[in-house]
Amino acid sequence: MNDRVVVCGLGPAGRAVASRCLARGLAVTVVDPVPRRRWTATYAAWADELPEWLDSDVVAATVDRPVAWGHRRHEVDRRYVVFDTERLRESLDIAGATVLADRAIDLGRDAVRCASGTVLAADRVIDARGVGRSPDLAEQTAYGVVVGPERADGIEPSFMDWRGDNGAESVAPPSFLYAVPLGGGRMLLEETCLAGRPALTTTVLRNRLVHRLRSRGIELDGDETIERVRFPVQGGRPGRTRFGAAGGFVHPATGYSVAASLAAADAVAADAPVRPVRTRAVAALRAAGLRALLAMPPEDVPEFFDTFFTLPTALQRAYLSGRTDLPGTVAAMNALFAALPAHLRRMLVRATVSGHRR
């Protein structure tokens, strides 16, 4: 077992793996430009993804059967949890680590050089710094507001709602409503661009959200807490020294990575063997799925998700959560392809072939 670990980056992934390394008695140094910064995003996960070691108090709200809308309503037979962001951060305890407020700029196998000139020797270096933005990378963007109990009452939690009541033209890049409880009767209502190159701006998403909510009888007063989201959904590369978004943990079809990072943190802390071939193969299949989403005509997106959410729950789970489940991912994609209308199957084939030619 290696004893000295340097973790670069203190987002959810970095903090999780640093905490699990400390739990194993390792000497941990963490490097981040602003190590005590608060997390402002809302994080959520499927309940069956969470590791046993995670404190149950970090869950702020639970949805037993979240809803997904394409053109039709679907109930997803998987329990969905929304984290209390501050409790999640505090639960990933790094009190025993040496904390360095600095920027890691050169990561080697056994040393890290920081912007200040400090060089940290290590037996293991873990890169959890995420992925930098680039015009070449598809991004997810979102604009959301938090509403109180008086306006949240009666709103059905939804994982994805692609219905066309947000004022966008049918040929415009699509976006969906994400509506989840935050605890205490509050709810996050967020208009989301799943993936775009370029992605929709938060200004466009704000206008769509206001239009959508108004069409449903919900008026905003301008005093709501606002959440803005923007991050790449590609660009990470699976590898033994990279973790979280940097290691390709971001799912390009959902933008989720926190649950996958939590689930893998203990194994990474233990320096357990990984399955590089399977992990890279699953990542390649998901990349093909992203190419299909980016190439899909906007008017076909709701039908695509109608088809996906009619798949058996086990296949949905394999594709949405199985980062190393190559057989499950292949089975899910095959079943989805067979169930899609012919014109969407042709589009998927073109998107996949074009990716192999690059």
Descriptive account of the structure:
There is one protein chain. By secondary structure, the protein is α+β, with helices and mostly antiparallel strands. It has three domains: 4-131 and 235-269, FAD/NAD(P)-binding domain; 139-232, Alpha-Beta Plaits (2-Layer Sandwich), CATH 3.30.70; 276-357, no CATH class. Helices cover 32% and strands 25% of the residues. The chain has helices at residues 12-23, 85-91, 149-152, 202-215, 258-269, 276-295, 301-308, 313-321, 326-339, 342-357; strands at residues 4-8, 27-32, 44-46, 59-63, 67-69, 73-75, 80-83, 98-101, 104-107, 111-114, 119-121, 124-127, 139-147, 158-161, 176-183, 186-196, 225-232. The strands form four sheets. Strands 6-5-14-15-16-13-17 form a seven-stranded mixed sheet. A four-stranded parallel sheet has the order 8-2-1-12, covered by helices on one side. The chain has a three-stranded antiparallel sheet with strand order 3-7-4. The protein is globular.
Observed structural traits:
358 residues; alpha+beta; FAD/NAD(P)-binding domain; Alpha-Beta Plaits; seven-stranded mixed β-sheet; four-stranded parallel β-sheet; 25% strand
Q: How would you sum up this structure in a few lines?
A:
With 358 residues, this protein is α+β, with helices and mostly antiparallel strands. The protein has ten helices and 17 strands. The protein folds into three domains: 4-131 and 235-269, FAD/NAD(P)-binding domain; 139-232, 2-Layer Sandwich (Alpha-Beta Plaits), CATH 3.30.70; 276-357, no CATH class.
